[in-house]
Amino acid sequence: MATNSGRKALNQEEEYGLSAAAAPRLTKENSARVDVDDVWHYLGRYGRYQVINILLLAFSVWPQSVSILSGVFVGMSVNHRCHNDEAASLQLSDYSNGSEIIMGECTAQVVVNTSSGPRVDQETKCSKFQYDSDVPTSFLAEWDLVCGSETLGQLPQMLTMLGMMVGAVTLPPVGDRFGRKTLGLASHFCHLLVSVGLAYVPAFEFFLLLKFLSGAFNQGFMVTQFIMLMELLPTELRTFMSLLATMLWVFSVLSLVPFAYLFMGYNWRTLQLAYGLISLSSIALLCMDESLRWLLVNRKVKRASRLLKKACRHNGKSYETLLKRVLREDVAATNGENHHPLLQNNYTNKEGVIGVGRDVGDETAKINPSFRDVLRSNTMRNISFIVTYSWMVSSLTYYGITLLSTSLAGDPYLNFLIGGLLEIPSTICMFICLSRFGRKTVAIGFTGAAGVSLLAAVLVATLAAKTYSLSLVQTALTLFGKFCISASFNTMWLYTPELYPTNLRNVGTGMSSMGARLAASASPFFSILARKAIWAPGALFSAACFLCVFLLSFLPETKFRELPSTIAEVEAWYVHDRQAKKSKNGSLTIPGQFTKVIQAPDNDDGDDIDEDKDGGGQDKDFK
Questions:
Q1: Which of 20, 161, 431, 487 is the most buried (most CB within 10 A)?
Q2: Residue 397 belongs to a domain with what CATH number?
Q3: Pick from 137, 131, 505: which is nearest to 293 by CA?
Q4: Residue 466 has what pLDDT?
Q5: Is the pLDDT of residue 186 over 50?
Q6: H or E element, residue 333
Q7: Would you give the DSSP letter of residue 283?
Q8: 245 lies in the same domain as 355
Q9: Average pLDDT taken over every residue of the chain
Q10: Do 360 and 294 share a structural domain?
């Protein structure tokens, strides 16, 4: 009996990796407590494994702008006039020899020359049109979506945004459930089929349907692969990751121009086919691994172990040493050292990153939360409302600024290129600000600046027609507004995933993206409003920005904090930040548990926080 008991104890030690003689093992019981940031630090922040996966991910997201912006070129406005056949409906013989038929863009007119000047005596709306080119270079020309049908020409873009909204809600939860890579591959494959299919649709109705599906599948891989990129880097590099993701977006947008210029004068279907084939770049995703953080949180131990062994092999590190490093806190927790069911072994490392140990056994720290848990938590519910509203305001303000801006003269391809290049200085400025200030501060600053700029542009717009100098001021304010709202939007792409635990990160980001797409799909209504009152859209957007600034002030700061794995961690942040406003020492107090004082993150020597242990059920003070 004693022998059997001894063997059983030994087996338990080996299972949890606690035996000093035996090598540590990754198990379902300890996998969710692995500090992923510690894994990346040991492997090297810019290790060969991470660099390879980042390059593969960067190549695979190339088609992210295709479904959103390809309509700018495949649906480009075309010069047109009434077809000559329309002249048959006009009885020119009833008029004198001085009369003539003039074919306009939308109407055919009989103009009679009189002593007092030309007079339009007869006019008819055209049902057939002819264009500058015999080849339909735009789907507007193929289906005659001009004049009275021009509003139908805006439906593809609207349905694309609505599709993105639906995809943002329905597809990201699939990634949380079945894996980031699985959803990314499936969405890329479907996006490829739909994008190529758009080049062969026989009717406009089918074109609309496929545009909707294209937008939906776009969100399936766009949101998911952004999350994969975030989870591939340690906490202190998330700002760099945001810069990288934005630059990838800019590259994707700018790459549309060479294709459009190369196929200028060709049938629009040829250009659409070329855009669709860009999705073949998704083959790079086949060579990537699943997100390590997702594997560990969902206790996919075998796959996580294979991934870690592969990463160690690529980076020249020891797998056994890695496990000893990342599992050492579990040994202390099992022995009863510094163990707490909500927050365990908190520390500040050299980079100023606040680490939070986790215990999956606590009831409030569920490893597999559902969206119902978000609704049940007041903190998560408030966060979800604020970030979704912020995304909606960013989207509305962006299109509002575009609406109120003066159009650039010159070649449309060059104009599109300039608009894309404007994103680069905006991104660099955002990166500099994020490196010095918190996410919340940067989001508030850029959103507020965009609101002020847009309000000023609207005020100037009412006077711009009087002087040329005022019109230049309006243009400058508009470009500055676009600069600011672009930076604000990119900041929210970084900020939002940091506010959600691992198994709700896709859902939370997708829900915010859904709000943005819903707002974007409503933009045509504001153009109608602008024709009635030019000041109204700008005033509404500016007011929305100022309200957004107020609401953002209630969010917790995420800079220098690891990505949360549980809702309880986010709630602890919220409590800490609220109490930090009331207390100069920034202490985190959980009633009946313990108090933690966080070392300022700008401590140059990076010393860990010392721990003073108290006996019994007394609180613990960390200094």
A1: 487
A2: 1.20.1250.20
A3: 505
A4: 62
A5: yes
A6: helix 319-334
A7: G
A8: no
A9: 74
A10: no
- What the block records as the tokens of 484 is 């600011």
* First-to-last C-alpha distance (Å) of the chain: 48
Tokens of 254: 């700018």
In a domain, 335, yes or no: no
97 pLDDT more than 70: no
Tokens of 28: 């379902």
Q: Residue 283: which of 189, 193, 195 has the closest Cα?
A: 189
| Paired residues of 110 in beta bridges | 101, 122
Asked whether the beta carbons of 354 and 603 are under 8 A apart, the reply is: no
Does 259 share its domain with 269?
yes
Decide if pLDDT at 31 tops 60: yes
pLDDT surpasses 50 at 590: no
Return the number of other C-beta atoms located less than 10 Å from residue 302's C-beta: 9
For residue 136, is it within any domain? no
Residue written as tokens 């996580």?
304
SS (H, E, C) 230-278: HCCCCHHHHHHHHHHHHHHHHHHHHCHHHHHHHCCCCCHHHHHHHHHHH
From 229, 431, 495, 233, select the one nearest 351 (Cα to Cα): 233
3-state secondary structure of 299: coil
Q: What is the pLDDT of residue 164?
A: 85
**Secondary structure element (H or E) that encloses residue 585, with its range:** none
Residue-wise pLDDT tens digits, 233-282: 887 777 777 778 878 888 888 888 899 889 888 889 999 999 999 888 88
User: Poorest-confidence range of 368-372, 477-481, 565-569?
Assistant: 368-372
For the chain, the helix, strand and coil percentages under 3-state DSSP, each to the nearest 5: 65, 10, 30
Distance CA 274, CA 283 (A): 17
Number of domain units in the chain: 4
Residue 593 has pLDDT above 60, yes or no: no
Shared-domain flag, residues 275 and 415: no
Query: Does the pLDDT of residue 198 top 50, yes or no?
Result: yes
How long a stretch of residues is the chain? 623
Residues 6+ apart with CB under 8 A from 89: 108, 124
Only one residue has tokens 């092999």, namely 313
Indicate if 430 and 548 belong to the same structural domain: yes
Please tell me whether residues 178 and 276 are part of one structural domain: yes
CA–CA gap between residue 395 and residue 154 (Å, rounded): 18
288, part of any domain? yes
Same domain, 391 and 258: no
Distance CA 557, CA 422 (A): 28
Look at residue 119 in the predicted model and tell me its pLDDT: 63
Distance (Å, whole) CA 208 – CA 476: 37
- Domain containing 485 equals 367-564
Q: Indicate if the pLDDT at residue 289 is higher than 70.
A: yes
Query: What is the enclosing helix (H) or strand (E) of 100?
Result: strand 100-103
SS3 335: coil
Token readout for 29 is 């019981």
Same domain for 591 and 447, yes or no, is no
One-letter amino acid of 395: S
* Dihedral, CA of residue 560, residue 565, residue 567 and residue 571, to nearest 10: -20
